[in-house]
Amino acid sequence: MEPTVFLVDEEPYVRQSAARLLRGLGRRVESFSDPIDFLRCVNPSWNGVIVLALEQSPLSSTELFEELRRRKIEVPVVILSDKIDVAGAVGAMKRGVFDVLLKSGPEVAFFEAISSAMRVGVEMQSVREQTSVILSRIRQLTNRERQVLDLVLDGQSSRRIGTHLGIEEKTVENHRSRLMRKIGVQNVVQLTREVVVSGYDPSSE
């Protein structure tokens, strides 16, 4: 999916003006007037940045952000507000909001925040895609290869793995070579890094 600005604002004029300005800068924009409709559409695969500018709807911007976190939506969020409470803004950013800006603030600050968040969003999407690839490759391993992988990640040598599984050390090395080839890595250091970053959990697979 092309990187997109997902704009949620119940005020038609503000929503349409922001969308027009962003499109004028070459950004793809999808806008929503209702946070509930937005939640029906939101998808973990989204790529880009979410802009929340809710003041009077049943859900505030911060409440909507917390719901996105609960759903594990890992897309950078920028909040626009009519007024900013410094302590509240700092707290929101500590919880993971990318930036908090005044609706009436300078357009350049808004554009810069969107551009920065968009870059982060694209990087996060790339990581998610790589994670998905690694997990998919791990699922293609045989049961024995998975056992060897788990013990390699536990830091055990081929000899100890062989003793633990009741197989020859050479057989362990053959399994390790095959699983590394399937996952697409060249050595144990790279294997460990890629698998750990992917979030692989042996107990849940």
Can you characterise this structure?
The protein is of the alpha/beta class and 205 residues long. The protein is 57% helix and 12% strand. Helix 5 packs across helix 9 and helix 6 (143-153) packs across helix 8 (169-183). It is elongated.
Radius of gyration: 23 Å
Return the domain count.
Answer: 2
Q: State the order of secondary-structure elements, H for helix, E for strand.
A: EHEHEHEHEHHHHH
Helicity, as a percent range = 55-70%
CATH fold-type name of the largest domain: Rossmann fold
**Termini distance?**
28 Å
CATH homology superfamily name of the largest domain? Response regulator
This entry's quaternary arrangement is: single chain
Summarize the SSE layout with pairings.
Layout: E1 4-8, H1 12-24, E2 28-32, H2 35-41, E3 48-52, H3 61-70, E4 77-81, H4 86-94, E5 99-102, H5 107-139, H6 143-153, H7 158-165, H8 169-183, H9 188-198
Parallel strand pairs: 1-2, 1-3, 3-4, 4-5
Structure summarized in a few sentences:
This protein is α/β, with parallel strands linked by helices. Helices cover 57% and strands 12% of the residues. It folds into 2 domains: 4-131, Rossmann fold, CATH 3.40.50; 140-204, Orthogonal Bundle (Arc Repressor Mutant, subunit A), CATH 1.10.10.10.
Give the key terms.
single chain, about 200 residues, alpha/beta, Rossmann fold, Arc Repressor Mutant, subunit A, 5-stranded parallel beta sheet, about 55% helix
